[in-house]
Amino acid sequence: MADGAMIGTSLRSRLMGHFLLVLGVIVVVFPIYYVFVASTHTVQTILRPPLPLLPGPEGPANYAEAIFGGVGRIGGVGVGRLLWNTTVVALGIAVGKIIISMASAYAIVFFRFPLRMACFWLIFITLMLPVEVRILPTYKVMVELHLIDTYAGLILPLIASATATLLFRQFFMTIPNELLEAARVDGAGPWRFFRDILLPLSLTNIAALFVILFIYGWTQYLWPLLITNSNSMNTIVIALRKMISFADADTPWNLVMVTSILAILPPILVVVLMQRWFVKGLVETEK
Amino acid sequence: MARISLKDVRKSYGATEVIHGVSIDVDDGEFVVIVGPSGCGKSTLLRMVAGLEVITKGTISIDGRVVNDLEPRARDIAMVFQNYALYPHMSVRENMAYGLKISGMAKPEIAARVARAAKMLELAPYLDRKPRALSGGQRQRVAMGRALVRDPAAFLLDEPLSNLDAKLRVQMRLQIKQLQRSVGTTSLYVTHDQVEAMTLADRLIVMNAGRAEQIDTPMAIYERPASTFVAGFIGSPAMNLVPVTVAEGGVVLPGGTVLALPGLALPAVGSALRFGVRPEHLQAQSPDSGAPEAQASESGMPEAPALTLEVFAVETLGADAYAHCLFPGGSDHPDEGFVVRLPGNTAARQGDRIRVSLDLSALHLFDDTSGRRIGEAV
Lengths: 287, 378
Prior knowledge:
The complex is a heterodimer of chains A (287) and B (378). Chain A is mostly helical and 287 residues long.
């Protein structure tokens, strides 16, 4: 009993442990499963409780209607278009943030220029203000640049990232100075050093950051809501909100459920596919 | 291959000067070792030659070309770093080829050079491994290989062996020496280890506090150190340097005994000196100190001056033993300690008195205040 007491080596405590774990999984997974079940029934079935616990026969029809047919409440725009919009925005934000933060961290860590530390602190203090504080001026700027209802308008204001800059700065500072000097002796200029040495060494960090930023971009709500008027430029999260009416009868619940499922799939896919890199980036610093 | 010439090279950080004017002409193919304690500026000096530190004053030229304002890559040098600085994400092959690739060399030529260096350094089986899968000694050899493939005008090595264990260090020391002989490339090598310095160097630069205390061949420095610093730094164990005052025809040792030094030109009576003699240049007259006092009084040899010492500790190393002694009647101040090399099987024990004679030719005298060598040992 001495060692195993905490984890439980006896059959009873093991059963108990598994019971609790299974219970936890059910609590988390059941609502998502229920959304999936609801997405395979007609609106009528959904609105007439109780909802069956097993998937119904309407699944393929519902998904086809949502993706290709368009949803009436959001001007007949298909979920396919929404998924495309959201993918562009999420990728744009993630990739843009990584490029900008890497470039600024590279400048701050490896170059000596006047006001270098001032630049760093300027970037750093923007962390102290939430996006919402500057949202009206930003909106005005976007209106004047005619970027309402454009991908650029959706992406650009969200692309600067003090957090990512800070992360890359910390990582770059752990790169031994001798590595930079060896590269200089080998004849590598600043651009080659970045491309041949810094970038490959940062890959795991980039992967981890990409996952986080992609999900951040995918779930953006307030800014896309402000910057898009046309239904065809909505992101999936905004469209989902627009589909739901106050009156239950007006809401195509089956399509809402389909959209919900489709909205959570890509982020899950990104996490699953990049998990190996993601974990590596979090635990391992390869030097 | 090239000559490297330093003319009154100085380095300041702000108002603080850390290198106070070093000048040396390194010959084509010469192996020059810069040695000194940590913080003496030896690495800074090397990094100035490499182009990694700005030269405040003076000029450095490689092969007749002043390189003060050239980037490292334009100086035609290769450098080996203390922690090797291998690119962790590249294989051994890529590490060695990287500099050549940047210089735009043709691929077959790069492959041939890497293969040749790998063969010389016995790295051929590891060419596709990443540095982290190599041992310390192998990483060190990759760092050497990276320098070798460049076929540069000069090798600059910054304490390349200090991260290795003692046995490997001896092995690599020999290998570096042979390698440098066979390729014949002018080399500057920085170390704090005086054994490495003695064994590797054609010429030594002994540095202390930003100054080149002495520049000469290892044996010349060993035999005629220019200052107490060099005398204490080169040679193992260190030279005995005890404070004495000049008396008529000799010097007064700690404890008050007068040691006659016939035929030696000494400064004015009363001047303070440092009296230097290496532990290995002392002859114990009575190695088995059965009755040291009695024997000593019988064998009064007028030619070789002799000292009586009191042993307070004996370190036995096998072949040799080092007796740490004090002067009878002197203090136990560390300055007055005196080490004598004895045979490994010596019977001398703590508390014994031993009598040692010294060869006048192996005697060094230094000014106590300036630390500079005075007079010529006969």
